Amino acid sequence: MAQALDVARIRARVSELLAEYRIPSAAIGVLVDGEITDFAVGVGNVSTREPATTRTIYQCGSVSKTWTALAFMRLVDEGKVALDEPVRTYLPGFRVADPDVGARVTPRHLLDHTGGIEESYGDPGEGDDVYERMVENIAGASQVHPLGRTHGYSPALGYAILARIMEVIDGGRWDDIMKNRLFDPLGLTSTNTRHEHVDRNRAATGHLVRSLEEGPVRSPLDHLPRSFGPGGNVTTTARELLTMAHVFLDEGKAPNGTEIVSPGIIREMTESRVPVPDPYTFGPEWALGLIVCDWHGRTVYAHDGSTIGQSARLRILPESNIAVSMLVNAGPRDGFYRKVFNEILADLGAVTIPGLPEPDPALVLDPSRYEGCYERPGTRYDVVAEHGALRLKFTLDPMEAELLGKLQQLDHELLPISETHFLMPSDDPLEDPRTVAIYDFENGAAQYLHVNCRVNPRADEESARVHVMAVSTISDDDGFWDSLKKAYGRLPAGARWTVGVASTDGTKAVNVIVHDSIDGVRSFFEDHAGAFATTEYFEVDAANALGLPAT
Hints:
The chain is α+β, with helices and mostly antiparallel strands. 26% of the residues lie in helices and 26% in strands.
């Protein structure tokens, strides 16, 4: 039996922490022995100053994956789909670039993020056929890593494929399936999959915190694209999120007594696990729609989520029969979550969240095993040795850098915890310390960098040695630069975008891209920006150019 929660004290402490982190509001729910206590602190919108309440609806972000996984497992429970049958059993036309992966990838690979398919699904639109189009669009998608080789989080694609399987099996749209098969049986009235279905009078407004001095400002984007639906677009309240969590604490039953899934399905979801290369950020294992944490020897199930201006946390403690949820209308801050949850858990006499490990100053590593470029389309990490220490240089997507008010190039020291794990401290008051895994050595060199659950393979830069200058005469300035910002996120593996600049009058632009050939750059550039400019392409002598690296 847990101790009683001192709600007044916790509310006061949350209010202090909101002010410290400049977060507008938090809605918190605590489920203990089947009973939910919920409260909200702060404002749902900094402009209107409307107070947040327990009825305020927030965006779940990737906690949506737990909702989707539970609904998918209802179909498994009914024998309509099998976890280890190929996806192609249910989607006969399913294809990706690697024919072996296309034939062998299973729902289990998608649920636990070991499929390794690149998120190259283009723009599938906002229509009811969005998940069908996503599946069609990945026919040429490459592999980030071989099937099952490592864990690598899929923000949208993996769960969109699961949603399409659900649609084919159930004969309806994913949004309707979620309502009919999960939300209604749980007795939920405030949980949705579509932003336009949310009562605007109850919806929290997302905020960005670009500096503590400026404080929260309204996010320019109200919601994620529909393509993120199964993996990121569920909206709910702190109480209704715990109603779903109750299913995991009561062998598949909702608080109203409805059996959502059988006890065997709950065991499958929690006990089918794969190792996570970085065990410190969230937990050492990933189950089916849940992260598996180790808190001082106690098993805790979890999922986190964030959108552009809102974030969510869910923790389920089966040994204590406790679950805690928190929804906030600002981006995720690990320090804030840890302080709030530890206040609640300590009050209940439950196990608390362990801190990040300390670096080991006695470790002496060979930098050459780690140095190199690790990248995905739109994301690049460079591990370099400077003055005997390893550093991680991170190139932000220019749109993300502009949105968050950050430099495009970030630089952090890597402090070794072990031969494969590093602590990445930060002197930025808006950043919490993080851990990074650099691992899977072949021929003396690490093959993958794993950070924030995303995996980034070592880039083959030998194939991207040609520096190409693209000189454009622009016909549509907004269209040109908007298209290039999107193109940056779809750079082929190994390619680099080193320069992008416009003339003061906006009629000319110069971009320098390192790729395999002039034709490779021309094809890539024209596909994205060809409608907005006329461009000439030249190979440049990078070895003699200022500001560009020699090859």
